């Protein structure tokens, strides 16, 4: 019986995780849940799964939840620190890291340092901390299992020896030539470039294949998501620039591929449904039911592939460059993007401003020579904060125009 701590229980990955847990109550027990502020959803989750602990970051939300759950078995805590404590405590052996954005870094890192089996959905944590994250996992013996569908696909296509050495694996030694990271191209793949500027948050969030949280949906429209995933893949699979390639695949049937030196290419395929990678990680190395139907090849239709156009997806270019520039660059990019996406969702800036704001933040950090090695979480959070300030300044300037 695995005891699972679910960070970000009220989100899209949170809901898919709960759906998989519901399929297999004899195998998994939900021991702890955390969320930002959604009391109604958290109450329903606690009443159904009866975890020992529930944390709300928002203090007022925690009070409401406590009242609603009075007399029940769930202890209610509040605050960001409590989230990190719950991620590391001994009530759970498995931690699903499904908080969105940079807020996931500290609790995910805490789970890694505590040597948990960490199911990594929160890609931003790895983008922000890279080598530190990989080193912390090696030091504590934490097992990292990639939930992000592409990384989960790549993981499934790699040999067991590589799977056991994530972050330190030897791709050349394993006969791997290239990792092929697929992406759909998002909802604006075929839109005339001149129309990108007018796109609304609702249009950006209407992903053709996947149903996800708002931030990752916008990131998919800009392809910043693929950029963050490129950085995530670099760390997980210890690859260099020649070993990593982005391929557009609009149907999202192939979730990524591994190309071997003998000419073989292994692909993992399935419905675009996160319950599959989640069930895979929860049960690894075994297989279990996820509730997802298998693909029906007779009704699939055509599968197509293309290169990503850099004029359409400047955020992808920025991320691929940042990946090889250093930790300061990926931490900065992630932070600036998060601020810019929030401003876009709030109607403060246009869709095409997201890439420009990220580029300005990267330039500013480089000009300030804040490019020293980041060898602690505190140093990372300091660059993160600075980048958020630069991005916020830019947004204010846009609003004044
Ligand atoms: P979401 O917005 O639907 O949910 C986010 C969760 O994080 C919620 O439970 C929310 O309460 C919590 N949260 C938000 N701010 C917080 C804060 N400051 N402190 C603590 N908790 C906070 O997001 P999502 O789509 O489920 O994505 C979660 C993560 O998984 C992201 O990193 C995303 O990139 C990754 N991911 C998502 C999908 C998907 O299909 N949704 C696929 C691959 C990877
Ligand atoms: Mg993904």
Task: Give the arrangement of secondary structure elements.
Elements lengths: L1 E6 L4 H12 L4 E8 L3 H11 L3 E4 L2 H10 L6 E4 L1 H9 L5 E4 L7 H9 L3 E4 L2 H18 L2 E4 L2 H9 L2 H4 L12 E8 L17 H5 L8 H9 L1 H13 L7 E5 L5 E7 L4 E5 L5 H9 L30 H12 L1 H19 L7 H15 L9 H24 L1
Parallel strand pairs: 1-2, 1-5, 2-3, 3-4, 5-6, 6-7, 8-9
Antiparallel strand pairs: 8-10, 10-11
Each distinct ligand: nicotinamide-adenine-dinucleotide, magnesium ion
Series of H and E elements:
EHEHEHEHEHEHEHHEHHHEEEHHHHH
Query: If strands are numbered along the chain, what order do they take across the biggest sheet?
Result: 4-3-2-1-5-6-7
What count of helical segments does DSSP give?
16
Q: How many strands?
A: 11
Main sheet attributes: strand count, strand direction, barrel closure: 7 strands, parallel
Rg from Cα: 20 Å
Task: Indicate the low-confidence ranges by residue numbers.
Answer: none
């Amino acid at each position: 019986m695995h005891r699972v701590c679910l960070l970000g229980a009220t989100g899209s990955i949170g809901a898919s995780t709960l759906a998989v847990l519901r399929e297999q109550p004899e195998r998994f027990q939900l021991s702890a849940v955390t969320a930002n502020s959604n009391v109604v959803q958290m109450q329903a989750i606690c009443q159904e799964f009866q975890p020992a602990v529930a944390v709300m970051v928002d203090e007022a939300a925690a009070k409401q939840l406590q009242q609603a759950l009075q007399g029940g078995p769930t202890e209610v805590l509040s605050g960001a620190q409590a989230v990190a404590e719950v991620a590391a405590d001994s009530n759970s052996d498995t931690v699903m890291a499904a908080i969105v954005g940079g807020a996931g870094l500290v609790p995910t890192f805490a789970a890694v340092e505590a040597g948990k089996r960490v199911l990594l959905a929160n890609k931003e944590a790895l983008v922000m901390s890279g080598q530190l994250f990989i080193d912390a996992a090696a030091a504590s013996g934490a097992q990292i299992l990639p939930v992000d569908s592409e990384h989960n696909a790549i993981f499934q296509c790699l040999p067991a020896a590589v799977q056991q050495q994530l972050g330190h694996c030897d791709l050349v030694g394993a006969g791997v030539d290239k990792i092929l990271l697929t992406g759909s191209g998002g909802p604006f793949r075929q839109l005339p470039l001149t129309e990108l500027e007018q796109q609304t948050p609702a249009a950006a969030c209407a992903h053709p294949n996947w149903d996800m949280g708002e931030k990752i949906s916008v990131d998919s429209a800009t392809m910043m998501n693929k950029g963050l995933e490129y950085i995530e893949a670099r760390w997980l699979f210890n690859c260099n620039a020649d070993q990593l390639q982005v391929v557009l695949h609009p149907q999202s049937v192939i979730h990524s591929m591994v190309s071997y030196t003998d000419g073989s290419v292994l692909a993992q395929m399935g419905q675009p449904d996160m319950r599959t990678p989640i069930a895979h990680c929860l049960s690894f190395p075994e297989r279990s039911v996820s509730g997802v139907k298998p693909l029906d090849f007779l009704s699939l239709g055509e599968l197509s592939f293309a290169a990503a156009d850099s004029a359409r997806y400047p955020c992808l270019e920025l991320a691929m460059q940042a990946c090889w520039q250093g930790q300061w660059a990926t931490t900065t990019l992630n932070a600036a993007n998060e601020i810019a996406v929030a401003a876009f969702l709030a109607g403060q800036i246009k869709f095409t401003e997201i890439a420009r704001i990220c580029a300005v933040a990267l330039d500013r950090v480089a000009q300030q020579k804040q490019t020293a090695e980041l060898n602690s979480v505190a140093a990372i959070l300091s660059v993160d904060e600075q980048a958020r300030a630069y991005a916020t300044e830019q947004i204010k300037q846009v609003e004044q125009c």
